[in-house]
Amino acid sequence: MMTHCSMFSSKKYLISILQLFIAFRINYIKLFNKNHWEIIIMSKIFTPTNQIRLTNVAVVRLKKAGKRFELACYKNKVLSWRNNVEKDIDEVLQTHTVFTNVSKGQAAKKEELIKAFGKTDETEICREILSKGELQVSEKERHSAMDTQMNSIINSVAALCVNPETRRPYPSTIIEKSLKDAHFSIKPNRNTKQQTLDAIKLLKTHMPIERSRMKIRITFAAKKDNGPKLVESIVKMAASVELEEWIESTLQITIFIDPGNYRAIDDLVRNETKGKGLVELLELKDVVEAEEIF
User: Are 116 and 164 part of one and the same domain?
Assistant: First the structure.
């Protein structure tokens, strides 16, 4: 009997121990899980990937009225905007806010905008900063962008210009060397087209070079009172006259011109003929390639 009671007490004791162990285990697991999730939650709160921030940002900076103003832009869009490739300002700006410090998120005050720009329309101010401001890039990126733009300018000059003595285009290597000798430098705030024209103007002071000429044909009904006068005005803007032909009372004149005179001639013919005259572009450029004229 005593043995049976002892055994029963022993079993009861073991069960109590087991219950205590299970209770401890459950509480430990709860405690561990609680701490574990707290750690996870805290890491989520403080991890940088969960902070709201501007990404792929390019800063355009303009100093005016003794104050620094900055825009947060998309990196690949600023040059596209300046080259007139991108027309939508919303594709360029990450926000229309004008900052005094983009990295710190400090927006310019209304009083500061009025003092510097004379207005508070931030979109209009953004346009001015995009046009006149300096794109902030690393030294490596700056050199890469300048090299790319310089190559584009060199190729454009080579494509647009000729040696006036031979009517042949210059190789790109000659254009590159001449620009270097003339101390031509890239201006970050001007687009490629503008700088190509700057380069041509500078090269004209260092070597024989001119824009390749366009070939156009002008047709209009000429009258005795205004026909000769209009022809004279047209010929004055022409580099050379290839053909002048009368077909009854209609005059056809084929000329070579500097590309810069095309719009002036087109306006002249349209105004003098009250829109009845015709200006046709026959060849974009007059360049000697081998033994042919293109």
Answer: no
Chain segment 129-158, per-residue pLDDT in tens = 999 998 887 778 778 888 989 999 999 999
Taking residues 112-123, report their average pLDDT.
94
Domain that holds residue 249: 213-283
CATH code at position 269: 3.30.70.240
How far, in Å, CA of 173 to CA of 177, rounded? 6
More confidently predicted of 285 and 164: 164
pLDDT in tens, 197-219: 999 999 999 999 988 888 899 99
Q: Say what the pTM is.
A: 0.50
Let me know if residue 33 belongs to a domain.
no
Q: What is the CATH classification number for the domain harbouring 128? A: 3.30.1250.10
